[in-house]
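Field log, afternoon session.

UNIT: design team B
ACTIVITY: writing a sequence onto a fixed backbone
BACKBONE:
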C-alpha cells in the first residue's frame, strides 16, 4: 500500500494482534543504530538511470526543484531523485525504494514545500504525484508534498497563506482522512483532482482521465 512505517505498524497491530496473546520484541530505535546518513552530492537530475526511471513513471518534464542526490549509509553508497523537506532533510526515491535521509528519528517526518510565488497551492502525499501535476499542465502553483499523511497536522500554518487549494491526495483510507481534515479546516477554497486509481501518478501512467473539480 506504500504506507509510511507508523501507519503500517498501526494497521498490522489492529488487524492481526488485537486479540492475540503474544509478546512483541523490543525494536531498536533508528537513532541508536549505527546508520548515520552522509549526503555526498546534490545536483540537477542528469543520471541516465534516474531519467529512465522517471520516464517509466511518465515523468518527462523534470522540474528544477527535483534534485539528484547521492548518499552513504554505513559505507554503502546510493543515489536517487528527491526533494528537500522543511526539516532540512531529503525525501528520496529510486527504483528500489523510498527513503528519508535524516540523522535522527525526530527528523524523519517532514513535509516539502515548493514555493513559486503563487496564491494557489497543490497538495499531494508523495513525490511522484507532485511530479505528475507538473506534467498535466493545469496551472502553475506552489506545491506541498506531505511525504506522509501524518504530516497533515503540521501544515495548517502553510495552507492558511493560500487563496485556493488543489487536493490530489490518494484514493485510500489514509488519503481520505487527510483530505477530510484539510476540508474541515479550509472549506470554501478547495478544488479536487479526481482520478480512478489509487494515486495520481498511477492514473497518469494508465492514461486515465484526470479532472479538476470544485
Amino acid at each position: 500500500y506504500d504506507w509510511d512505517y507508523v501507519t503500517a505498524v498501526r494497521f498490522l497491530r489492529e488487524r492481526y494482534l488485537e486479540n492475540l496473546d503474544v509478546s512483541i520484541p523490543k525494536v531498536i530505535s533508528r537513532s541508536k543504530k549505527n546508520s548515520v546518513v552522509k549526503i555526498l552530492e546534490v545536483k540537477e537530475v542528469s543520471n541516465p538511470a534516474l531519467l529512465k526511471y522517471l520516464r517509466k513513471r511518465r515523468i518527462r518534464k523534470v522540474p528544477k526543484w527535483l534534485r539528484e542526490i547521492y548518499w552513504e549509509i554505513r559505507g554503502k553508497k546510493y543515489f536517487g531523485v528527491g526533494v528537500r523537506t522543511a526539516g532540512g532533510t531529503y525525501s528520496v526515491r529510486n527504483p528500489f525504494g523510498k527513503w528519508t535521509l535524516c540523522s535522527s528519528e525526530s527528523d524523519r517526518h517532514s513535509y516539502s514545500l515548493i514555493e513559486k510565488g503563487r496564491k494557489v497551492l497543490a497538495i499531494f502525499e508523495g513525490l511522484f504525484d507532485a511530479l505528475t501535476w507538473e506534467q498535466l499542465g493545469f496551472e502553475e502553483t506552489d506545491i506541498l508534498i506531505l511525504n506522509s499523511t501524518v504530516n497533515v497536522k503540521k501544515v495548517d500554518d502553510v495552507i492558511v497563506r493560500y487563496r485556493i487549494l488543489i487536493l490530489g491526495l490518494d484514493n485510500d483510507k489514509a488519503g481520505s482522512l487527510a483530505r477530510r481534515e484539510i476540508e474541515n479546516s479550509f472549506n470554501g477554497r478547495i478544488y479536487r483532482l479526481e482520478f480512478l486509481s489509487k494515486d495520481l501518478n498511477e492514473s497518469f501512467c494508465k492514461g486515465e482521465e484526470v479532472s479538476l473539480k470544485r
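LOG NOTE: The helical segments are 5-17, 48-56, 127-136, 156-159, 173-186, 200-206.
NEXT ACTIVITY: expression trials, pending approval
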